[in-house]
Amino acid sequence: MESLDAIDLALLDQLQADASLTNQALAAKVHVSAPTCLRRVARLRQLGLVERQVAILDRDKLAPLLGHGLQALVEITLDRQDDQAMTAFEERAVADTAVQQCYRVSPGPDFILVVQADDMPGYLQVAQRLFTADANVRNVKAFFAVRRAKFDPRIALPKRGA
């Protein structure tokens, strides 16, 4: 893979903060010309460093319109931890639309999931689909979020001189 310079890192940092910026606005923020910015961002995307662009919705502003919903952080321990069993569970979890995030972790439980459901009956349906129906799930420990103090999907990038 090619190396990244200070301009590349500044572009990636700005894109993480606000990917909706116009090319001209992005170029101004990182102090390069618009054509240079366009070419560099295209290269960063071609390298696969920008996985995808999404809109992050405001839960608190959506709540009066859609309901608060229920978010759970769930620890999963499997009975068998061989690669086939781990991969099988991971594939099922990732395919479920209620699962927002899925991590294989160590030590401790085998997985940590972030699950979003409309309400407790909705969460119980997810639990039935993913945990109860799977004979290889040994232990499930769910923690229900009562308040989110911080959510930031950005990756901290090193600061390099240009």
UniProtKB/TrEMBL annotation:
The GO terms describing molecular function are: sequence-specific DNA binding
Q: Name one GO biological process term.
A: response to amino acid
Matches recorded under Gene3D superfamilies: 3.30.70.920, Winged helix-like DNA-binding domain superfamily/Winged helix DNA-binding domain
Organism name: Ramlibacter algicola
Keyword hit for Phosphoprotein: no
Task: Write one Pfam family the protein is assigned to.
Answer: HTH_AsnC-type
- Superkingdom as given in the UniProt entry: Bacteria
Keywords of the record, alphabetical order, are: DNA-binding, Transcription, Transcription regulation
Which InterPro entries does the record match to this protein? AsnC-type_HTH_dom, Dimeric_a/b-barrel, Tscrpt_reg_AsnC-like, Tscrpt_reg_AsnC/Lrp_C, WH-like_DNA-bd_sf, WH_DNA-bd_sf
Keyword Protease in record: no
Task: From the Swiss-Prot or TrEMBL record, give the protein name.
Answer: Lrp/AsnC family transcriptional regulator
Q: Taxonomically, what lineage is the organism? A: Bacteria, Pseudomonadati, Pseudomonadota, Betaproteobacteria, Burkholderiales
The terms describing its cellular component in GO are:
cytosol
Locate the HTH asnC-type domain: which residues? 4-71
